[in-house]
């Protein structure tokens, strides 16, 4: 009873959800590494991010609810350390994605699907907030380019996504290099995997193996969680 009056948290409750927390921390850490290494923008893990954000809010409430007493300083330090770990991993994950979103803003808009009945467009790998950011960023960037650069170019060379109007391809639109080599670790036995389009180069993917391969060859394996990047 005395410990409750001093504001000591229920450590049994904390222990009960420890496995879930450790699992989520491992997942967000790997999601951050995957995002950092992959040349393209990966699918946003909304469920995981929302759960960790709720965890952050709960931990902040616990820290604020602790009484200022020497007997709870250890518990306060534990909660505070967990808060910092969560903040760092979440911020790293989201910041890495935003860098890519800015780099590939034009491509994201081209890949987006128009919303129904006037709703905002959606993208299969971006969150709603990221999609809104893409639109605002592209408008600001486009206005800046037109006012400071494109208007000073000769007619026919004043396009944002083409070097010239005569070029049918959007050759100035940044796109990820899917042929870039990456390190990947096999999470589950997969058997023979083709590493080129001709099927001339193959590898036997077994759990725990580490490979250096072209990203395009393992793109779908990463999406289906057969591998992780490192």
From TrEMBL:
Per UniProt, residues of the DNA replication complex GINS protein SLD5 C-terminal domain are 176-224
Sorted alphabetically, the keyword list is:
Coiled coil, DNA replication, Nucleus
Major location (coarse) = nucleus
Coiled-coil regions listed in the entry:
42-69
Q: Which InterPro entries match?
A: GINS_A, GINS_bundle-like_dom_sf, GINS_Sld5, SLD5_C, Sld5_GINS_A
Q: Which GO terms describe its biological process?
A: DNA-templated DNA replication; double-strand break repair via break-induced replication
Compartment annotation: Nucleus
Q: Where is the GINS subunit domain?
A: 56-138
Question: What does UniProt give as GO cellular component?
Answer: GINS complex
Do you know which Gene3D superfamilies this protein is assigned to? Answer: 1.20.58.1030
The record's family statement is: Belongs to the GINS4/SLD5 family.
Sum up the protein's function in the record's words: The GINS complex plays an essential role in the initiation of DNA replication.
Name the chain's protein. DNA replication complex GINS protein SLD5
Q: Which organism is it from?
A: Symbiochloris irregularis
